[in-house]
Design goal:
The complex is a heterodimer of chains A (200) and B (272). Chain A has 200 residues and is an all-alpha fold. Chain A has two domains: 103 residues, Orthogonal Bundle (Rna Polymerase Sigma Factor, Chain: A); 95 residues, Arc Repressor Mutant, subunit A (Orthogonal Bundle). Helix content of chain A is 72%, strand content 0%. Chain A is built from nine helices and no strands. In chain A, helix 1 crosses helix 2 and helix 2 runs antiparallel to helix 3. Chain B is an alpha+beta fold and 272 residues long. Among the domains of chain B are: 47 residues, no CATH class; 130 residues, Protein Transport Mog1p, Chain A (3-Layer(aba) Sandwich). Chain B has nine helices and 13 strands. In chain B, the strands form three sheets. In chain B, strands 4, 5, 6, 7, 9, 10, 11, 12 and 13 form a nine-stranded antiparallel sheet that branches. Chain B has a two-stranded parallel sheet with strand order 1-8. Chain B has a two-stranded antiparallel ribbon with strand order 2-3. Chain B is elongated. The termini of chain B are far apart. The chains are: A mainly alpha (200), B alpha+beta (272). Chains A and B meet through helix 2, helix 3, helix 4, helix 5 and helix 7 of A and helix 1, helix 2, helix 3, helix 4 and helix 8 of B. The structure holds zinc ion (ZN). Chain A: It comes from Thermalbibacter longus. Chain A: This is RNA polymerase sigma factor. Chain A: Keywords: DNA-binding, Sigma factor, Transcription, Transcription regulation.
Amino acid sequence: MNPPPRHGLDHDAIHSERRLSTASRSRDADTFNEFVDQYYAPLRRYLLRLTGDPELAADLTQEAFLKAYSRIEQLADDEAFRPWLYRIALNLARMEFRRRQRRRVLSLEWLIESVRGISHWLARPDDMVTVPTRDLVQQVLDELSPTLREALLLHRLAGFTSEEIARLLNISPEAARKRVTRAVQRFQALYHERAGAREE
Amino acid sequence: MRECDVAAEELLAYLDGCLDGEREAYVAHHVKVCPVCQIRQAELEETKQLLKVSTPLPNDEIERSQLKAEILRNPHPPLPRRRRRPLLMVVLAVLLSLILLWPADSSANLQLGRVVRGVVAQVEKSLLGRREPPGDRISGVLFRDSQAFVPPAELPLGLRLSDRATPGLRRVESHYRSESGVEILVVQGPADQGLALGWRDVELVYVGDTEVLWLKDPRRGNVAGMVWERHGILFELLVLNAPQGNEGGLPLEETLLIVRHIIAAHDAASSE
Ligand SMILES: [Zn+2]
């Protein structure tokens, strides 16, 4: 029998994480920077898909690392760094979402565009087509609820197991698996529906 | 052929390596013969490929080395200041709905009303090609240094300052939390830069002689935000979180306590 594929960290990686986090507790900036080398790009990629905004993803990545660094003492011995880092990042992203919900912030560019849109309405060429600025994967992700999007990306993009996700989100493993499963079903349905519509 | 007796969640647990020995062996065998599970497995794999292929790892060398340098520089780093797009920060988003809703007969006497109208005039001027907001006076409102005052570290309802940022030369954001889970953000900026509001359901209330715009939460009597102008500074109080399932809204009376407290501190600081 073939062993099932595993998405989590292998044992060597876990050991090296333990070593790193222990060293970091003494505020060894060099050692912490090994974490940065190891996890910066994957975390930024995760946040890009979670937020759909490259600049925000970059900001949140930096913020998450600095926050983790400033709070490294809070990391329990038996807890690996990576899920902890993702939890910090996720909380930052959630807070940002909430802020944006409350403050319907519109950019000056948007304002200028909309005013131009009105004043140049008649001069607007007929053949102007609105091109979607977001790729299909992002459009589908945007349609998922935040809860499902988080779980889907943690599992299928960041490579956490359902048990790791459960600890990270503070839910039961069953609940984590339910979320991932539902998210995959919804993603698949929406993606194939949209992809089919594009081809027609 | 037998029906599938492995739920999608259990298949996932198996693929994650989270099943115990006996059940794992059963599912491993089952998956080989069950078309339903094979489709599910293919969907999981396809989803992963779609996400990974469409989201390559970023070229992060510059950002990463900046961050590492920052960490080496600061053994005890301050919480980061978020980088912002300058234009985006010029938040000139008073929606027309707000203006149109403003009662025409009373607006003549309202300081806040003049600010709101003034902001729109500013936007129009910017759009006509003038570079910077002209002057420091709109309809008799004098704009002062918006960072000259910051709200106190402690506010009513047990709120304590948890973070303060100055994202831009003329803005201050103060973030407060309480033990009971209330979370608010107080944003202040010069009154000529406008508000970040798109609220339809608003009402004017008074704290002393200060007009305060109440941005209503969908739950009756609750507050989503408060906006007021005082001594040339425009304040926005935004309720980020509230306990007891209030879905983010705070009761009006409690929010007014906070506003009153900030106004009193501001008045005291301005008279010094
Ligand atoms: Zn099956």
